[in-house]
Amino acid sequence: MRSRKGFVITLDAIVALSFMLLSLYFIQAMSFNPTAMKGTQLKQFSLDALSVLEKSGSLGKAITGNTTAARDILLYSPEPYCMQLSIVAMNGSSVATIDKPGCMGAQTEVQISHGAFRFNGILYSTTLRSWFREEVNE
Amino acid sequence: MKAFVFSMIAVSFMMLLIFLAAATATGYAEMERSFIDPLAVSYASSTMGNVGRQFSLILLPDASVTDGNGTVFIRIADSIPRPATSSAINEFNSFVANNLSTMVHANITTNISKVNGSSLEILAADKFTYSNGLNGSSEMFFGKLPSGATDVRSYSLNITVDDYRASESLFIWDPLGDIDVTVYYFDYNGTGLSQGKLKSDATNSLSLGYGNASRLILDIGEININGSYSDGAIRMNLTNGLLASFVLVAELPAQPSNASSNLVFQIPMTYSQDGIYKAINASR
Prior knowledge:
The complex is a heterodimer.
Chain A: H1 2-29, H2 35-55, H3 58-63, H4 68-75, E1 81-89, E2 94-99, E3 111-119, E4 122-132
Antiparallel strand pairs in A: 1-2, 1-4, 3-4
Chain B: H1 2-59, E1 62-67, E2 71-80, H2 86-103, E3 107-110, E4 121-124, E5 128-132, E6 139-144, E7 148-149, E8 154-160, E9 165-169, E10 179-187, E11 190-198, E12 203-210, E13 215-225, E14 228-238, E15 244-253, E16 264-273, E17 276-283
Parallel strand pairs in B: 7-14, 8-10
Antiparallel strand pairs in B: 1-2, 2-15, 3-16, 4-5, 5-6, 6-14, 8-15, 9-12, 10-11, 12-13, 13-14, 16-17
């Protein structure tokens, strides 16, 4: 009889522990996932970067063929961010495509920001694609 | 009875954990929303700022307002006549309504009806008006409208004309004047300088004659604009197709702390996207 009572208490404890672990699992599963936040941070950063490119005159220089200033701005963005700037004329012809150095490979979770830019009387559309750098497993 | 108590405690504890999990999940979702929701407005602001800056590039002269120690300097670099802006404005307006709206998945509207060809009126420091090419004229004006005194301390004006000067009639200086005036004019004859004091409530004129009987007429002091008088104002008028570029620096007394130093123009703009609605007056 005593061994049966012990068995019931142990079973009760196991069941209770199971519920507790199950609850903890749900808490962990529903815990704060910062992926969306990271995406919006990247989007916000790319909009700011596009604005800096425009205001610093780097877009104008890139249109005239000197892409150094624009590339430098992309280069000095946070290390995990990858970026590609495209400048397209109104007639659809590509004027410049500038990549942040060291950002080759797959693009996942891409954020795209658009803008307009007028230079020497000609209208251009600007597109900045941003994504997270692929982590290299060594 | 004892088992029942244990069971009740276990169930209560389990329910507590479940409620805790639900509350945590809700809290996280709300926290994420509180971060993400305002960003849509931020995106709208970014796009509208970009559009406003491009309108500025098309419409506005190179102008700045600098607040010094008890002094405000307004610097305007411009040309008469102003470069044609109608086609550029229409082209950009169409680009915003069609291309850019599609790209950012939003509905952006701009109302350019208040921009009349190459005409433009800018309000600086809340009460001073700079206009150039209003109603197709070849005239620049800076002063207070509809009337009043600018209390300007000095005007410095550099004028460049690509033509030969045929004649000149300079200001008649008044040592008791309250405005220090410095006018440099650069043309094919070389550099001319006219410097002295003028009274802000008197009519003072400088006139330079160029080819094809064209003239550059510069008025400083009391100026009649559509029947209203503005003291301490400046106006430059070119005739017979004469072209000139200029840099004007007006030194003004300190402005009220609530005065706006923004240069604005009238292009109401709206941005709507998935419940986000933002309306601004495009400005620089």
